[in-house]
Design brief:
By secondary structure, the chain is mostly helical. Helices cover 64% and strands 1% of the residues. Strands 1-2 form a two-stranded antiparallel sheet. A hairpin with a 5-residue loop joins strand 1 (68-70) and strand 2.
């Protein structure tokens, strides 16, 4: 207890006695020495220290004033004359600074050990340097983000959403956390999902293409064509590298809503933000959408609009099929077919054969596609075609090929198996539905209870249910298959209206 009392006396005395001695030096000759015994001579080695009298051990006062030293007789005496007594602020600052630094260092070490034990990926420097403390929110955000990923992988979805919410609240500029949170909310909390996507677009300009593509898939699954049209028109400005995909999304959505305002909005984008070939396609679609059918067909066939890109050729041929003009579409296909990619060419061929009623050629094309082990692009083409153009006979042919030479059940082919499952459900092939459901559960490692809801929809699609209520639970689906399902089961297409 005596040592502890002297410790506090030292802490107090470093300030008190240095102040007293500083005033004494400032008022030289006017006051008596504040620390020496007034009854002594005031001479060196003859004068005792009054300040040390109340200490448990007077020698400890030397931490405050090193002028107190042992005399030859063993007693403690002041080693200087009264007029030479002076303060030792350097010693005070050194002891206080050292104590504060040691305490601070100990606190940093303890905090580092605790936080690392919890799982926060902090560094000693982050905790020790106050300007770096602002990054602790980011560190905490990353911690909850990692917890969310683990929970999501273990199918603890509610826990994953809670952890992601905390991560995004702590760091609103954590794009990865916000994007994953928006994706998880899109099934049960569509409004929250949309608000998060809007916030991500505003806060992360450099990541807008990634954000917009993710949001688009969520909107498409829900059938929110009005928002898709607005997003697509804006995306033509900030994501020119994927202009053809956004054009396709824009055209599909405005045909669903009948509202041409987003199309005019896209056309208002000035150069060079809007490439000439993109503007030409937008203007062509506006002409087709606002004209009579015959005039629209003429516009698509007009030589002056000869396409310069593969998508422009695909658009004209596909648009003619939508206008129920397969013969004219065939004419353009024969002219522009070499410009198309292999995938687009195969998809258009199947649709042309179906619209023209050329059953033998259609069957032969499908037999060729299923003669080898199926891959994901082939599955997407076949499933989208069989959904748009029903044929139980060809569906049996395709599923026989899938049974004999199945698509490898890997995570990369998950969307292909989802497409196969939807198509099997549409055709009422219960055996294939069961086998494909088991494959999906095996790939995902979960019970996937939403498959039962999807199966019930395909069994009775007319039972007051909408495909938009099922599609979000079946993601990811190939885009072409999603388009085909929305065309077959979605709300009827509206007539175009001017803004």
């Amino acid at each position: 207890m005596g040592w502890l009392a002297d410790l506090f006396r030292t802490a107090w005395g470093l300030v008190y006695w240095n102040l007293r001695k500083s005033l004494y030096r400032a008022r030289r000759g006017q006051d008596r020495c504040p620390c020496q015994n007034p009854s002594d001579s005031g001479l060196a080695w003859e004068t005792g220290c009054e300040a040390a009298l109340h200490w448990n051990r007077q020698g400890r006062f030397r931490r405050v004033c090193p002028l107190l030293k042992p005399a030859p007789d063993g007693t403690l005496r002041c080693s200087v004359n009264a007029e030479d007594v002076r303060p030792f602020w350097g010693r005070a600052f050194l002891l206080y600074g050292g104590t504060i630094f040691a305490s601070y260092l100990l606190a940093v070490i303890l905090a580092f050990a605790v936080l690392r034990g919890i799982g926060y990926k902090v560094t000693p420097w982050t905790l020790a340097w106050p300007p770096a403390w602002s990054t602790l929110r980011t560190v905490r955000s990353e911690y909850f983000l990692e917890k969310a990923r683990v929970a999501y992988n273990e199918q603890r979805i509610n826990e994953a959403i809670l952890s992601l919410s905390l991560a995004y609240e702590l760091d609103p500029y954590n794009h990865a956390a916000g994007l994953l949170l928006a994706q998880l909310w899109q099934v049960g909390q569509a409004a929250l999902s949309d608000r998060t996507y809007v916030r991500l677009l505003d806060n992360h300009p450099a990541m807008r293409p990634v954000t917009a593509q993710s949001w688009y898939r969520a909107l498409l699954a829900r059938g929110d064509f009005g928002t898709i049209a607005q997003l697509s028109a804006d995306a033509l400005r900030f994501d020119p590298d994927h202009a053809t995909a956004w054009i396709h999304a824009l055209f599909f959505s405005i045909r669903k809503t009948g509202d041409l305002a987003p199309l005019h909005r896209a056309l208002s984008i000035t150069s060079p933000d809007l490439a000439p070939d993109v503007r030409a396609l937008l203007e062509l679609e506006r002409t087709v959408a606002t004209s009579l059918r015959a005039q629209g067909i003429d516009a698509l066939l007009r030589p002056a609009t000869d396409p310069g890109t593969a998508y422009a050729a695909y658009y004209r041929i596909n648009r003619l099929l939508q206008l129920d003009a397969p013969q004219q579409a065939l004419t353009l296909f024969e002219r522009y077919g070499p410009r198309l990619g292999e995938r687009e060419r195969a998809a258009l061929q199947l649709d042309l054969y179906a619209e023209l009623g050329w059953a033998p050629l259609r069957r032969a094309t499908i037999e060729t596609l299923t003669a080898r082990t199926l891959n994901l692009p082939t599955v997407e083409i076949l499933m989208a075609h069989l959904i748009r153009h029903p044929s139980p006979e060809l569906a049996r042919l395709v599923f026989a090929g899938q049974a004999a030479r199945p698509l490898p059940p890997t995570e990369a082919n998950y969307s292909g198996y989802t497409a196969l499952f939807c198509t099997a459900g549409i055709y009422g092939d219960s055996e294939q539905v069961t086998a494909l459901a088991n494959a999906l559960k095996q790939i995902s490692g979960s019970s996937f209870v939403s498959l039962r809801a999807a199966e019930a929809f395909f069994r009775q699609p007319e039972a007051n249910r909408r495909i938009e209520g099922v599609l979000p639970m079946l993601q990811p689906l190939p885009l072409d298959v999603t388009y085909a399902l929305l065309e077959r089961f979605g709300r009827p297409t509206s007539a175009p209206t001017q803004p």
